[in-house]
Design brief:
By secondary structure, this protein is mainly alpha-helical. Helix content is 68%, strand content 0%. It has a single domain, classed as Triphosphoribosyl-dephospho-CoA protein, CATH 1.10.4200.10. The longest helix has 19 residues.
């Protein structure tokens, strides 16, 4: 197993140990998915994400194929979309951030074609359809330009268009701050997740339930997130977070984009050393 492959699988498994309200974690399954589904997905997709020399598009498409073969459903498309460029950047000499910018600048129509095929296979529902560009047709743009068209309604696409600012900016900075405070790895990732959920409406929730409900969830998360992030003992918030988790799952709300970004933050931090 390569260093990049191992770091990817470890990041996916670490995120499952974090208490992420509305998502699958070690305290609770949800949305007809289990902890084992995600663990198996991580193991199955890691070789493709870490394949030396592969393009970003190839990594994503082969990882989606491996996931579908392992668990028969889409558990990790957003994770793969975020982590494949980071994995490619980690193969380059020097700083990860600079490498990522170079990778994003190099993405072309072949990458877009592979990613469109991956999205069709994963079938996430609602992702990738705009009047200008549709994943069900051959791409007319490079991958980053295609992502720019979706950036206003999908936070993963927004990160492609903005040099992964959520991941390498606010997310990584918060993770480092919580680790310096002495938080355990799982609670630090819980903090990162709640930071994302509190800061902006989750775009997976918005696609499934509408922008208004996504904003309501953000507001619901904001007070609890602020109290958690100010705490010296995050474990004291376990009961409150589990209550919020139950409330979200009863409404069939899955803030999946915030969880995907959390995995990417952990992966980027590992790659950067």
């Amino acid at each position: 197993m390569t260093r990049i492959e191992a770091a990817f699988e470890a990041a996916c498994l670490a995120e499952l140990q974090a208490l992420k309200p509305g998502n699958v974690h070690r305290w609770a399954d949800g949305h007809r998915m289990t902890l084992d589904d995600f663990a198996r997905s991580a193991k199955a997709s890691a070789p493709a994400i870490g394949e030396a020399g592969a393009t970003v598009g190839q990594r994503i498409l082969e990882a989606v194929k491996a996931t579908r073969a392992a668990v028969g459903q889409n558990t990790n498309l957003g994770i793969l979309l975020l982590c494949a460029p980071l994995a490619k950047a980690a193969e380059m000499a020097g700083d990860l951030d600079a490498g990522l910018k170079a990778v994003l600048a190099s993405l072309d129509e072949a990458d877009a074609q592979a990613v469109y095929a991956a999205i069709r296979l994963a079938n996430p529902g609602g992702l990738g359809e705009t009047p200008e560009e549709d994943v069900h047709s051959a791409p007319k743009l490079g991958l980053v330009d295609a992502m720019r068209l979706a950036a206003g309604r999908d936070r993963i696409a927004w990160n492609y268009a903005n040099d992964f600012s959520d991941v390498l900016g606010q997310g990584r900075a918060l993770l480092q701050r919580l680790e310096r405070r002495g938080w355990t790895p799982e609670w630090a990732l819980t903090g990162v997740y709640m930071g994302f959920l509190s800061r902006q409406p989750d775009t997976h929730v918005a696609r499934k339930h509408g922008q208004r409900l996504a904003e309501i969830v953000r507001i619901e998360a904001a007070d609890l997130g602020a109290e958690l992030l100010a705490a010296s003992n995050p474990a004291a918030f376990e009961a409150a977070l589990l209550t919020f988790d139950t409330q979200l799952k009863r409404r069939q709300i899955n803030p999946g984009t915030s969880a995907d970004l959390t995995v990417a933050v952990r992966f980027a931090a590992s790659l950067a050393g």
